Amino acid sequence: MDTSVTPTGFPTTFLWGGATAANQIEGAYCEDGKGLSIQDVMPQGVVGPVTAEPTSDNLKLEAIDFYHRFEEDIASFAELGLKLFRFSIAWSRIYPNGDDDAPNEAGLAFYDRVLDELERHGIEPMITISHYETPLNLARNYGGWMNRRLIDFYHRYARTLFERYGHRVRYWLTFNEINSVLHAPFLSGAIETPKAHLTDQELYQAAHHELVASARATQLAHELAPQAQIGCMILAVPTYPLTPAPADVLAARRTEQVHYAFGDVHCRGRYPGYFLRDLTERGIRLQITEDDRAALSHTVDFVSFSYYASLCATADPSQGEDGGGNVFKGKRNPTLPLSEWGWAIDPTGLRLIANDFWDRWQKPLFIVENGLGAHDTLSDVDGEITVNDPYRIAYLREHLVQVREILRDGVDLRGYAVWSPIDLVSASTAQLSKRYGLIYVDRDDTGTGTLQRYRKQSFHWYRHVIATNGASLDTGGAVD
Ligand code: BG6
């Protein structure tokens, strides 16, 4: 494999990609035997209540109808030039209740067709096994990931996927943003009890179960699909001290360590000392069996992460303004601009965190999510119905310039996937008006629209970046 860096700063093998998640694009929430997932009862994302049943105001039930339009969408991803498409498999399409004895063949057949289509267009798939869409039955009748039994249910599901697709899918991710389980227990851990009523003991035990499940899936992938590579996926949030005061520096470091611990376990095969100390001091006694310890020793082949924003931390919570992203909160960095949803825009943070991850773990890295959620307006530009989105182009360009710096720093970074090649329903707020896509989908927050697709100006821009292997970043990313 030729990994040499070309004059554009990007290796010829660099995987220019795009990323999505099943629940945010597929729709068809109860078609072909699919069971309900936690997303089907979260009409307002993490900011609103969980409903007893799916309700008609839940945009994810239909989402952008990728389930019926994947051929058209994958064709446009090919036109965009994507080399890598990251998507997730809806667990409840394969095991409708999560605890079923046998998989749902219609669900498996759907992903066969998606993979066929990607293969036809020469796009490398990357599959997330679990992306915030645990079968609802596992939440309602088992207590979600607080229950150790989910390790076995996940294992059976992962086995089914490796047996079916392991020969044709090289890249696998076990859990989307696994570190978010401590912060968004229902979204990430299928734990319906509100966070305020959960103890740290319960939350950390749930995280432990996910870590064991992830390691067991890694072991299984290595056995069943030896040519495949399996990675963890971490929500990366570089955290700066709010001031240079050592107490603030320590507060920032400790905040980052809570995230790093998840990567440490995946890459080193055991819990780090600082993490164990923290548990002890907080009176948390994890139930870790001998089998768990043996499972954790199966380490990942690569580390992937999402990156949207950075935050600040302080030892004195009365200082600074509150700031946030979709699941993590902290202090706002007064030096950085904010997105329309209040997330700090910080391209340098991407370089910092990628260098940290590389220095710490020495595993190949993938940036598997990065992008800007913004309001868009359709307009006519020289006869093309499109979205003129210089703000998104600027965001992506600035981050990709940092990606090139990361490569120049000598980091083994294998690819970058924009979130997202196409508009989708937001995870945290369940809105469609928070648009991330390079392709506009005609559907609004009330669910009204034709679902027709329109290429945005950022689509043309990214196509050019990919076609020139990054060279056009230096020309301001001219749109052809
Ligand atoms: C990541 C998730 O945290 O952020 C995605 O993996 C999500 O599922 C993305 O869509 C953007 O966040 P949001 O909440 O704006 O959709």
Give an account of the 3D structure.
The structure is a single chain. The chain has 480 residues and is α/β, with parallel strands linked by helices. The chain has helices at 22-25, 66-80, 91-94, 105-120, 136-140, 149-165, 185-189, 200-224, 246-268, 273-281, 290-296, 347-361, 390-408, 457-467, and strands at residues 15-19, 84-88, 124-130, 171-175, 229-236, 239-241, 302-307, 311-313, 322-324, 329-331, 365-369, 378-381, 384-387, 413-418, 439-441, 453-455. The two termini are 31 Å apart. The mean pLDDT is 96. It binds 6-O-phosphono-beta-D-glucopyranose. The site of 6-O-phosphono-beta-D-glucopyranose has 16 residues, from loops.
Characterize this entry briefly.
The chain has 480 residues and is an alpha/beta fold. It is built from 14 helices and 16 strands.
Which key phrases capture this entry?
480 residues; alpha/beta; eight-stranded parallel barrel; two-stranded parallel sheet; 14 helices; 16 strands; globular; binds 6-O-phosphono-beta-D-glucopyranose
